[in-house]
Amino acid sequence: MIDVAALAVFIPTFFFVSITPGMCMTLAMTLGMSIGVRRTLWMMIGELLGVASVAVAAVLGVASVMLNYPDAFAILKWVGGAYLIYIGINMWRAKGKMSVNTHSPSDVSRQSLFTQGFITAVANPKGWAFMISLLPPFIDVDQTVAPQLLILLSVIMITEFVSMLAYATGGKSLRLFLARGDNIKWMNRIAGSLMMLVGAWLALD
């Protein structure tokens, strides 16, 4: 079973990173405003499957390194921690602007929406780097990997879905909120601070 203390760190970190405006959240808001929330769910399903695929591949790949090359994993842990700190610094420095195109075609098919969501998740190199850096250190190879991975995936799927649904249903109101003052900047700073703390914790643990 996954360590409760580690899970208590993982959940708020992933939540703030997920809810921060990014490619998938902006896409969800754009589609929600242009074609409606119900049809946007097809994109969300594709995105969730894409994120799950990336997460599983990241954990299994790095878990193999952990088991067969423990010294290499020690280096990987430092590199992963440094990368998370780098992401956190970039989030702190982000200007916090959103570009939303509300003129998406209203006749787009369900299959196209599903494919768009899946490709958006799988083809994002930052998503791969993030999963490889963040997920494996929360896995204890001395315990059965599958239940731990299932718990982390459940947290990721629920968080991603709730975040995308919030953006899709929020529509114009959410867009106005994010455009007001420094709201996005402070969201980025909260998420960035958590990323830097987790990066330091993973590297030094």
From TrEMBL:
Segments passing through the bilayer: 6-29, 41-66, 72-92, 145-166, 186-204
Membrane-related topology note: Multi-pass membrane protein
Entry's localization field: Cell membrane
Domain of life (superkingdom): Bacteria
InterPro entries registered for this protein in UniProt: LeuE-type
Principal subcellular localization: membrane
Keywords: Cell membrane, Membrane, Transmembrane, Transmembrane helix
Pfam family, one: LysE
Name of this protein: LysE family translocator
